[in-house]
Amino acid sequence: MDIDVRGPRFGAAVTTVVLALVLITGSAWLLAWQTLVFALGAAGGVSRSPYGWLFRTAVRPRLGPPVAFEAPEAPRFAQAVGLVFAGLGLAGYTLGPRWLGLAATGAALAAAFLNAVFGYCLGCEMYVLVRRVTVRAE
Q1: For 36-83, what is each residue's pLDDT tens digit?
Q2: CA distance 15 to 47
Q3: Which one of 82, 86, 87, 93 has the fewest beta carbons within 10 angstroms of its own beta carbon?
Q4: Cβ(11)–Cβ(46) under 8 Å?
């Protein structure tokens, strides 16, 4: 079932704020929260993540009906990519080196910002490229 395109962008906006706060405060706990959010989004799809639930229950009812939909596979893959970067960042913040935490969190922040502000999902584009390569290889 296709998803409302505004949902992943809302999630990216919340993620942008959370990751910016992680970089400002250095909070490993806040990054652990975001890592969990990415894990839930990767496992169950963006609509089953906490930010997806927040969009569905608090934001979407206040908006007009959706006019654009997308398949859930690419945003789900993007959540998995975010999970990898957040996991690396969490490892850097908790185990070291600290630069790994900063770099991985910064990369995830940049990707979330691009999606939230410009609607450009890097993880989704990676998904399309992976699909093209795997289809050609078969």
Answers
A1: 999 999 999 999 999 999 999 999 999 999 999 999 999 999 999 999
A2: 15
A3: 87
A4: yes
